Amino acid sequence: MPVTSSARLDTSDIARIAVFAALLAVLGLPGAIPAFGGAVPITAQTLGVMLAGALLGPLRGALSIIVFEVLVAVGLPLLSGGRGGFGVFVGPSAGYLIGWIAGAAVIGFIVHAGGRRPTWWRTALGSFVGGILVIYAVGIPVQAAVTQLPLAQTALTSLVFLPGDIIKVVIATVITMALWRAYPRAFRRTTAAVAPTATPVADDTNADAIGR
After folding, report:
1. Closest by Cα among 56, 28, 42, 45 to 131
2. What phi and psi, each to the nearest 5 degrees, are found at residue 33?
3. What pLDDT, in 10s, does the model give residues 1-31?
4. Is residue 116 part of a domain?
5. Whose CA is closest to 211, among 202, 187, 189?
6. Domain range spanning residue 171?
7. How many CB atoms are closer than 10 A to CB 36?
8. Neighbouring residues of 62: CB distance < 8 A, sequence distance ≥ 6
9. How many CB atoms are located within 10 Å of the residue 135 CB?
């Protein structure tokens, strides 16, 4: 019978949350690309948000973003371009940073809906909905309010992010599904473990390899 993962965090969960917070920081190292003079730069860190939700699930994925943003708030220059400090949470990028948390949670809910194993289409859908639509839905209105520009104009200029974000959806989907096939045990806390119905499984390695 299916065994769903607990909502409680253990040391393994804390380690994974820390790893993904570090991954977000690493993805900020290449720097930020100015979006044709826009107030919000193009960065690779949204890819980390997509991977956090897809690989860790809704709770742990969102927590990894929160940990990262707490470090940013206390002054560590972890955002692309070496930005950090509480000021970024009241600037044009503030809505996008809040959207990262909600986006990671939505991605996790979609990818691991009902404790099911990841599939390519749910991973792509989750990454698109949570990693693009949710983040834009929070980020664009806040950016418009901070910059005092019309919402429609801000939304139009934000379309410059879309091609790159779609590429990130593809990359996140490929990485997630590759990890699922190569190391399904990494998803044990976000998916239901289904026992075989025929012959018993001899060892944990084979048990982890059930299904795609």
Report:
1. 45
2. -105, 120
3. 343 445 678 899 999 999 999 999 999 887 5
4. yes
5. 187
6. 17-31+38-188
7. 8
8. 52, 53, 101, 102, 104, 105, 108
9. 27
User: What's the alpha-carbon Rg for the chain, to the nearest Å?
Assistant: 18
Task: Report pLDDT digits (tens) over 42-72.
Answer: 688 999 999 999 999 999 999 999 999 999 9
d(Cα 55, Cα 41) in Å, to the nearest integer?
26
- Measured CA to CA, the distance from residue 8 to residue 111 in angstroms comes to 20
CATH number at residue 22: 1.10.1760.20
| Cβ count within 10 A of residue 30 | 12
Q: Among all chains, which residue has been given the structure tokens 């025929």? A: 198
**Does 199 score more than 80 pLDDT?**
no
pLDDT digits (tens, 9 = 90+) for 92-117: 999 999 999 999 999 999 999 988 89
CA separation for the pair 154, 96 (Å, rounded): 13
Number of domains in the chain: 1
Residues in the chain: 212
